[in-house]
Amino acid sequence: MSDTGWRRTKFRSVILRIQGSVFLSDRIRRALLNYAGAQIHPTATVRHSCWLASADIVMGRNAMLNNFAYYDGGARLTLEDGARVAAYSIFTTSSHPHSGDPARRSSPSIIVAPITVKAGSWIMARVTVNPGVTIEHGCMIGAGCVVTEDTEPNGLYVNVAGATGTVRARRIRDLVDFDGVEAKFGEGVIDLSSSLARRRQSIPGSAPMP
Fold it and tell me: What Cα–Cα distance (Å) separates residue 62 from each residue in 40, 86, 147, 189?
C-alpha cells in the first residue's frame, strides 16, 4: 500500500472511532461518516455509541441506527428508506463456516456477505443479523431475535424453536399495509403506567406503586 493510501486508511479509522462520541451531534456524525465513504441521506440518523468497523454503509430517507448498534464492516450494510434499528443490535456481515473438526469447529475460512434491511422495516433491540440476510420491506423483527435467513415482506418475526431445537427468527404473523397519514413524532404515545400499577397491586404481597 502506498504512503498516501495508508494515511487515508488510518484517517478513516480515526473518523470511525470519533463518530461514536456522545459529544457530537447527529448532523456532525453523519457528515463525518459520509466524508469517510458512507452514503447516509440527510434525513437519516446514526446515534452515538455505535461501533462501526467500516464506512461501507448506505442509509436512505429517515433510516435510523440507534445507540450501541454494532456493525463488523466485512461487507456493505444497507438500511433503506424508513428502516429503523433499535439499540444494541448486531450486524455480522462476516463469519466462519463450520469446519467439521471437533478440535476446532470454527473454520479458518471466512464468509463475507452484505446485509440489507429494506424500506420501512423495524429491527427491535438486541437483534443479531447474520451475513447475507435480506430483511424484506415492512417487517418487524422482535427484540433479541437471531436472523439467519431472508424474511418475506410485511411479517412479524420472533425467536421460535424449530423441530431440531434450533432457535431463530420465524414468522408468526402477517402485517397488513397501512395507507393512513404518517403520524408525527410523539403522536399516539401509549402510556402503560396505570395498567402496570393495577397489575402490580393485584399481586399478593406487593407494595403499592407511589
Answer: 10, 14, 23, 20
Give Cα 103 distance to the centre of its chain. Answer: 33
Query: What are the grid coordinates assigned to 46, written together?
Result: 446514526
pLDDT digits (tens, 9 = 90+) for 138-174: 999 999 999 999 999 999 999 999 888 889 999 999 9
- Residue ranges of alpha helices (H) inside the chain are 3-18, 26-35, 193-201
Tell me how far apart the alpha carbons of residues 133 and 127 are, in angstroms, rounded to a whole number.
13
For residue 112, the tally of other CB atoms under 10 A from its CB is 12
Eight-state DSSP code of residue 63: -
* H or E segment and range at residue 123: strand 122-123
Cα end-to-end distance, the chain, whole Å: 64
Share of the chain residues as helix, strand and coil, in percent rounded to the nearest 5 = 15, 30, 55
List C-alpha distances in Å: 197 to 13, 86, 189. Answer: 48, 27, 18
pTM (predicted TM-score): 0.82
Query: Closest Cα to residue 46, out of 66, 24, 31, 32?
Result: 66
Supply the DSSP symbol for 158: E
